[in-house]
Amino acid sequence: MTRQKILITGASSGLGAGMARAFAAKGRDLALCARRTDRLDELKAELADRHPNIKVAVAALDVNDHEAVPRVFGELAQEIGGLDRVIVNAGIGKGWPLGEGKPWANKATIETNLVAGLVQIETALEMFKKSGGGHLVLISSVLGNTGVPGGKAAYCASKAGMTSLGESLRAEYDKGPISITVLEPGYIESEMTARSASTMLMVDNETGVRAMVEAIEKEKGRAVVPRWPWAPLTQVMRLLPPKFTKHFA
Where does the Ketoreductase domain lie (predicted)? Predict the structure, then answer.
């Protein structure tokens, strides 16, 4: 099934912007939202220039403003004539070692990645039920499969929660007309991964986004992307004793 009208949150940079470019090249209409409207406007102009036959709507959205989420989703859907795929992508990677005096950083990550993600999920599913179907994509992380000491503890917890929500939804919607995809990206070049110590495992943005879009288009239930080296590494991560997971920090 071709999903023609796609909403992406956190679309102003990184994986969100990369997916927007990839879907635009496939001729899809796009609803893009993020906090940084200047970047969204630049992206819209770029896509309109390269692909003049598609619709691109943009809107400011802080996903932590929970009341704004259904309003913005609804306005964007109206502007491009509906939604048949929503990609819950907005997220942050703030964090600090637990118990060392910066709880606000960890709280912000869990609120943005998990609580705000839940609000987006609720909104998208309500819209799909009214319209008769759709495809919900949750962007989790390979780090949702393990715990990492130090500043990534809250991030890992938030992504484990997102994966768990997705797995629950996959069980609930095991037959159409609503389909669920849980994506677990490895380290893909973006603003969020710029300070990662595991640069030897990093793939460039184009390669990573290509793998993500391929899995999304196939509407896989759950996929680790890119498959190499992350699919086998993810299996290892689940079995590693805690003291060894520091190598993924």
Answer: 4-191
